[in-house]
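Team,

Forwarding the record for the chain on the shared tracking sheet. I've put the sequence and predicted structure together so nobody has to dig through attachments.
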Amino acid sequence: MKTILSWSSGKDSAWTLHYLRSDPTIEVVALLTTVNDAFDRVAMHGVRRDILEAQAEAAGLPLHVVRLPWPCSNGDYERLMGDYVREQAESGVSAIAFGDLYLEDIRAYREQKLTGSGLTPLFPLWGKPTRELGEEMIEGGLVTYVATVNPNKLDASFAGRRFDRSFIAGLPPGVDPCGENGEFHTCVVAGPMFSHALPIRAGEIVTRDGFVFADLLLDRSVG
Protein backbone atom coordinates (compact mmCIF):
# COMPACT_ATOMS: atom_id res chain seq x y z
CA MET A 1 0.00 0.00 0.00
CA LYS A 2 1.68 3.19 -1.20
CA THR A 3 1.60 5.63 1.70
CA ILE A 4 2.45 9.29 2.26
CA LEU A 5 3.61 10.22 5.78
CA SER A 6 2.59 13.53 7.30
CA TRP A 7 5.96 14.85 8.47
CA SER A 8 6.28 17.61 11.06
CA SER A 9 10.07 17.22 11.54
CA GLY A 10 9.40 15.98 15.08
CA LYS A 11 9.61 12.77 17.06
CA ASP A 12 6.06 11.45 16.57
CA SER A 13 6.19 11.56 12.79
CA ALA A 14 9.74 10.15 12.81
CA TRP A 15 8.73 7.26 15.05
CA THR A 16 5.68 6.67 12.86
CA LEU A 17 8.07 6.22 9.93
CA HIS A 18 10.01 3.69 12.00
CA TYR A 19 6.80 1.75 12.68
CA LEU A 20 5.58 1.90 9.09
CA ARG A 21 8.83 0.48 7.78
CA SER A 22 8.35 -2.60 9.94
CA ASP A 23 5.05 -3.36 8.17
CA PRO A 24 5.61 -5.33 4.94
CA THR A 25 2.18 -4.33 3.62
CA ILE A 26 3.09 -0.62 3.56
CA GLU A 27 5.46 1.26 1.26
CA VAL A 28 6.20 4.80 2.41
CA VAL A 29 6.76 6.78 -0.80
CA ALA A 30 7.15 10.37 0.43
CA LEU A 31 7.10 12.76 3.36
CA LEU A 32 4.50 15.54 3.38
CA THR A 33 5.16 18.81 5.20
CA THR A 34 3.42 22.17 5.35
CA VAL A 35 5.75 25.17 5.31
CA ASN A 36 4.93 28.73 6.27
CA ASP A 37 5.45 30.72 3.07
CA ALA A 38 6.47 33.93 4.86
CA PHE A 39 9.22 32.37 6.98
CA ASP A 40 10.07 29.22 4.97
CA ARG A 41 9.80 27.09 8.11
CA VAL A 42 7.73 24.09 9.16
CA ALA A 43 4.33 25.27 10.36
CA MET A 44 4.10 25.31 14.20
CA HIS A 45 7.52 23.72 14.76
CA GLY A 46 9.44 26.65 13.32
CA VAL A 47 12.11 24.31 11.88
CA ARG A 48 14.12 25.70 8.98
CA ARG A 49 13.57 24.40 5.46
CA ASP A 50 17.18 23.18 5.08
CA ILE A 51 16.85 20.96 8.17
CA LEU A 52 13.61 19.56 6.80
CA GLU A 53 15.31 18.73 3.51
CA ALA A 54 18.25 17.13 5.35
CA GLN A 55 15.82 14.95 7.31
CA ALA A 56 14.15 13.74 4.12
CA GLU A 57 17.54 12.95 2.57
CA ALA A 58 18.59 11.00 5.68
CA ALA A 59 15.26 9.12 5.55
CA GLY A 60 15.84 8.31 1.89
CA LEU A 61 12.48 9.71 0.83
CA PRO A 62 11.27 12.52 -1.43
CA LEU A 63 9.89 15.57 0.33
CA HIS A 64 6.52 17.00 -0.67
CA VAL A 65 6.03 20.57 0.54
CA VAL A 66 2.66 22.31 0.67
CA ARG A 67 3.33 26.02 1.07
CA LEU A 68 0.86 27.84 3.30
CA PRO A 69 0.23 31.59 3.11
CA TRP A 70 0.72 33.74 6.21
CA PRO A 71 -1.69 34.28 7.77
CA CYS A 72 -3.41 31.07 6.71
CA SER A 73 -7.15 30.67 7.08
CA ASN A 74 -8.70 27.27 7.65
CA GLY A 75 -10.27 27.59 4.21
CA ASP A 76 -6.89 28.19 2.58
CA TYR A 77 -5.41 25.21 4.41
CA GLU A 78 -8.21 22.85 3.42
CA ARG A 79 -8.12 23.99 -0.22
CA LEU A 80 -4.36 23.49 -0.55
CA MET A 81 -4.37 20.15 1.23
CA GLY A 82 -7.38 19.01 -0.76
CA ASP A 83 -5.53 19.73 -4.00
CA TYR A 84 -2.52 17.76 -2.76
CA VAL A 85 -4.62 14.78 -1.68
CA ARG A 86 -6.35 14.62 -5.07
CA GLU A 87 -3.00 14.68 -6.87
CA GLN A 88 -1.65 11.84 -4.73
CA ALA A 89 -4.76 9.69 -5.12
CA GLU A 90 -4.58 10.15 -8.90
CA SER A 91 -0.90 9.11 -8.86
CA GLY A 92 -1.67 5.77 -7.18
CA VAL A 93 -1.08 6.58 -3.51
CA SER A 94 -3.68 4.84 -1.36
CA ALA A 95 -2.97 5.97 2.22
CA ILE A 96 -1.65 8.81 4.33
CA ALA A 97 -0.22 8.21 7.81
CA PHE A 98 -0.21 10.53 10.83
CA GLY A 99 1.70 10.52 14.11
CA ASP A 100 -1.34 11.42 16.23
CA LEU A 101 -1.45 9.75 19.64
CA TYR A 102 -4.82 10.28 21.31
CA LEU A 103 -6.59 13.56 20.44
CA GLU A 104 -9.96 12.31 19.20
CA ASP A 105 -11.04 15.60 17.61
CA ILE A 106 -7.93 15.81 15.43
CA ARG A 107 -8.30 12.22 14.30
CA ALA A 108 -11.98 12.73 13.53
CA TYR A 109 -11.15 15.87 11.50
CA ARG A 110 -8.56 14.02 9.42
CA GLU A 111 -10.90 11.09 8.81
CA GLN A 112 -13.77 13.36 7.83
CA LYS A 113 -11.67 15.38 5.37
CA LEU A 114 -10.25 12.22 3.76
CA THR A 115 -13.60 10.50 3.35
CA GLY A 116 -14.14 9.77 -0.33
CA SER A 117 -10.68 11.12 -1.28
CA GLY A 118 -9.18 7.75 -2.18
CA LEU A 119 -6.61 7.99 0.63
CA THR A 120 -7.03 5.90 3.77
CA PRO A 121 -5.86 7.61 6.99
CA LEU A 122 -3.47 5.53 9.13
CA PHE A 123 -2.57 6.16 12.79
CA PRO A 124 0.20 3.68 13.71
CA LEU A 125 0.95 5.16 17.16
CA TRP A 126 -2.67 5.69 18.18
CA GLY A 127 -3.51 4.88 21.80
CA LYS A 128 0.01 4.14 23.00
CA PRO A 129 0.63 5.45 26.55
CA THR A 130 2.70 8.56 25.94
CA ARG A 131 5.25 8.13 28.72
CA GLU A 132 5.96 4.58 27.59
CA LEU A 133 6.12 5.76 23.99
CA GLY A 134 8.57 8.53 24.83
CA GLU A 135 10.81 6.08 26.68
CA GLU A 136 10.55 3.64 23.76
CA MET A 137 11.74 6.36 21.39
CA ILE A 138 14.71 7.22 23.59
CA GLU A 139 15.62 3.56 24.11
CA GLY A 140 15.33 3.01 20.36
CA GLY A 141 17.97 5.62 19.58
CA LEU A 142 15.83 8.62 18.66
CA VAL A 143 17.68 11.91 19.19
CA THR A 144 15.47 14.97 19.13
CA TYR A 145 15.46 18.52 20.47
CA VAL A 146 12.64 20.76 21.59
CA ALA A 147 12.11 23.33 18.83
CA THR A 148 9.00 25.08 20.16
CA VAL A 149 7.43 25.61 23.57
CA ASN A 150 3.99 26.99 24.38
CA PRO A 151 4.84 29.11 27.46
CA ASN A 152 1.21 28.98 28.59
CA LYS A 153 1.64 25.24 29.13
CA LEU A 154 5.37 24.74 29.79
CA ASP A 155 8.21 26.94 31.03
CA ALA A 156 10.23 28.57 28.26
CA SER A 157 13.44 27.08 29.69
CA PHE A 158 12.51 23.73 28.09
CA ALA A 159 13.08 25.19 24.60
CA GLY A 160 16.21 23.82 22.96
CA ARG A 161 16.60 20.91 25.37
CA ARG A 162 17.16 17.36 24.26
CA PHE A 163 14.16 15.06 24.62
CA ASP A 164 15.58 12.42 26.97
CA ARG A 165 14.71 10.72 30.24
CA SER A 166 15.72 13.73 32.33
CA PHE A 167 13.50 15.92 30.16
CA ILE A 168 10.50 13.65 30.70
CA ALA A 169 11.22 13.34 34.43
CA GLY A 170 11.40 17.13 34.76
CA LEU A 171 8.04 17.89 33.16
CA PRO A 172 5.50 19.49 35.50
CA PRO A 173 2.35 17.54 36.44
CA GLY A 174 -0.29 17.74 33.73
CA VAL A 175 2.15 18.13 30.84
CA ASP A 176 1.96 15.25 28.40
CA PRO A 177 5.30 13.39 28.14
CA CYS A 178 5.09 13.56 24.34
CA GLY A 179 3.64 17.08 24.17
CA GLU A 180 0.47 15.79 22.55
CA ASN A 181 -1.57 18.72 23.85
CA GLY A 182 0.69 21.26 22.14
CA GLU A 183 2.97 21.88 25.13
CA PHE A 184 6.07 21.50 22.97
CA HIS A 185 7.21 20.42 19.50
CA THR A 186 10.46 18.74 18.51
CA CYS A 187 13.00 18.36 15.73
CA VAL A 188 14.60 14.95 15.12
CA VAL A 189 18.32 14.78 14.33
CA ALA A 190 19.02 11.02 14.52
CA GLY A 191 17.29 7.67 14.86
CA PRO A 192 16.67 4.29 13.23
CA MET A 193 14.64 5.92 10.46
CA PHE A 194 17.68 7.93 9.30
CA SER A 195 20.78 6.68 7.48
CA HIS A 196 22.92 9.17 9.40
CA ALA A 197 22.69 11.79 12.13
CA LEU A 198 22.20 15.44 11.18
CA PRO A 199 24.78 17.99 12.37
CA ILE A 200 22.43 20.31 14.23
CA ARG A 201 23.47 23.05 16.64
CA ALA A 202 21.38 25.35 18.77
CA GLY A 203 20.90 28.96 17.73
CA GLU A 204 19.17 31.71 19.65
CA ILE A 205 15.96 31.36 21.65
CA VAL A 206 13.29 33.73 20.35
CA THR A 207 9.69 34.52 21.29
CA ARG A 208 7.26 35.10 18.45
CA ASP A 209 3.47 35.00 18.17
CA GLY A 210 3.14 33.76 21.73
CA PHE A 211 5.52 30.80 21.34
CA VAL A 212 9.15 30.26 22.31
CA PHE A 213 11.36 28.90 19.53
CA ALA A 214 14.84 27.38 19.69
CA ASP A 215 16.28 28.33 16.31
CA LEU A 216 18.05 25.09 15.40
CA LEU A 217 20.72 25.38 12.74
CA LEU A 218 22.24 22.92 10.27
CA ASP A 219 26.01 23.04 10.78
CA ARG A 220 27.31 23.13 7.20
CA SER A 221 30.92 22.89 8.38
CA VAL A 222 30.35 19.23 9.25
CA GLY A 223 30.58 16.60 6.53
